[in-house]
Design brief:
Number of strands: 2
Radius of gyration: 22 Å
Order of helices and strands: HHHEEHHHHHHHHH
Structural class: mainly alpha
Number of helices: 12
């Protein structure tokens, strides 16, 4: 194991074991290096790596702290990595979304507030029948994020945010050339919304599955 990897594992062990908790300040570099049996250089590299993935927060002139370790914070790196996917792997990301998002939509059926449903309906009305790609990408992102956030599961919400952010959606929508793609999508959004208003979890799950599967089908024909 490379010395930097060893240093990362040792700091990780301290956090997992509870020796370091969210918000805790790490000991001074010299003290921590001696405690862990590491060189200061390898410890410094490990801290840099862990700060990039939001495990640690290096505050200039103050010290290094363990972050909140909130799922949304930790999974930000996922979105960054996903943006680098090749066009020929976008279907694989959609397949994962097809597994997770219908479950989140079903969970939201019993939790989403009437005011949130009204806001989603107004958003669809404002979009109109002939939106631009940019408008559709923004609306699609907001529509599904609003529903998933109502599932009550922050980990699920963060995973889906990471898997299907603006860059991924833009790539998908630019590949949808069929004339009825936009109208079908808006129809499916309204069907999902109607199922949520009825508090029908299984109908909401089914329509969310149909919606993502339709996108997969359209995109598959363009690749």
């Amino acid at each position: 194991m490379a010395v930097t990897d060893e240093a990362i594992e040792k700091i990780k062990g301290m956090i997992v074991s509870g020796a370091l908790r969210p918000g805790d300040r790490l000991p001074k570099e010299s003290e921590l290096a001696a405690e862990l049996g590491l060189s200061r250089n390898s410890l410094r590299e490990a801290v840099r790596a862990l700060s990039l993935i939001r495990i640690l927060d290096v505050r200039q002139g103050d010290g290094t702290y363990v972050t909140s370790l909130d799922p949304q914070l930790l999974l930000e790196a996922l979105s960054f990595v996903v943006d680098f996917h090749r066009d020929d792997t976008v279907l694989e990301f959609l397949a994962v979304r097809r597994i997770l998002e219908p479950a989140a939509t079903a969970m939201a059926a019993s939790r989403i507030k009437d005011s949130e449903l009204d806001a989603l309906g107004e958003q669809l009305d404002a979009l109109g029948a002939d939106p631009s790609v940019e408008e559709l990408v923004a609306s699609d992102l907001d529509f599904h994020r609003g529903i998933v956030q109502s599932s009550g599961n922050s980990v699920l919400c963060s995973l889906l945010d990471g898997l299907s952010g603006p860059t991924t959606r833009a790539r998908v929508w630019r590949g949808l050339t069929q004339e009825d793609a936009v109208s079908r999508t808006l129809h499916e959004h309204r069907a999902i919304l109607a199922a949520l208003r009825d508090r029908d979890a299984e109908a909401a799950r089914s329509w969310a599955t149909v919606h993502i599967a339709s996108v997969e089908q359209w995109l598959r024909s363009t690749l």
